[in-house]
Amino acid sequence: MCLLSYYAPGVPVDEDELRRGAEVNDEGHGFALTLPADDVRGILTAKGMDFGSVLRLFAGMRSEYPQSHAAFHSRLATTGRVCTQQAHPVMCCPNGSEWNAALFLNGTLDFPFEAIGKLSDTEHLAHGLESMDLDDPVHADALEIQAKRCNAKILILAADDLMAENAYIFNRDQWVVTPQGVLHSNADFRGKGTGWDESTCDDGTLLRWRMLQPGQCSFCFRYGCRNPAHPGEDYPPHPPAWRNETERRAKVRGR
User: Fold this and answer.
1) How far apart are CA 179 and CA 148, in angstroms?
2) Where residue 48 falls among pLDDT bands split at 50, 70, 90?
3) Cα dihedral sign for 127, 79, 239, 185?
4) Domain assignment of residue 243, yes or no
5) CATH number, domain containing residue 133
6) Helices (DSSP H) in 93-202: which residue ranges?
7) How is the beta sheet containing 167-170 ordered, strand by strand?
8) Range of 43's domain?
9) pLDDT in the model for residue 231
10) Per-residue pLDDT reduced to its tens digit, 182-211
11) Residue 205 located in a structural domain
């Protein structure tokens, strides 16, 4: 499911939050930040499999450009292979721009399998953005609807004159906002026991699950549920956000 973190201009980077997120999302890391117009306008990106190296580069560049729009992503693979190429961001060109936009995704989008082919859902979305205008409310609303339907979070950073904004954030209601103003796509940045947890079955199967997220009912675990019949007691042993980590690793790392 990944951890995606967005930093508006001037918002500080807490490296410990990113380390805790990378502990459970350890299958590729990457970042992007916008360069100011009075410099060489554009997007600076880097990604790799070694979290420490990517984080050091990100922290250094963010320190040099504290007023940039910036994002960091730690991946947990659900589609695609585990490799640097599949790490985020994926460069794209919405609004007819010239590849000066970086796409990040947390979650899995519901594209038909035959439509994706050998692409990951993120790569498929990047191709689809070529025919979209994110400053057109109709196009933006369509992407917002898809993100909400899939309980996914989408972020696009841009530094192109053809795009009105530097940051396009979708499904914002389900992001976690820290007191410092950081937007995290989920609570993994809080660490084990608070943001996520795990258990090992008698047969050795590792199960992991996310703790309660913004807008998520404490009883049925559905987003946006306001049913007063749900008192928030007698939790199921594993909420629907759990996953068989042993099975998932065998699938994505065994390719």
Assistant:
1) 24
2) very high
3) negative
4) no
5) 3.60.20
6) 113-116, 121-128, 137-149
7) 90-92, 101-106, 153-158, 167-170
8) 3-189
9) 61
10) 999 999 999 998 899 999 999 999 999 888
11) no
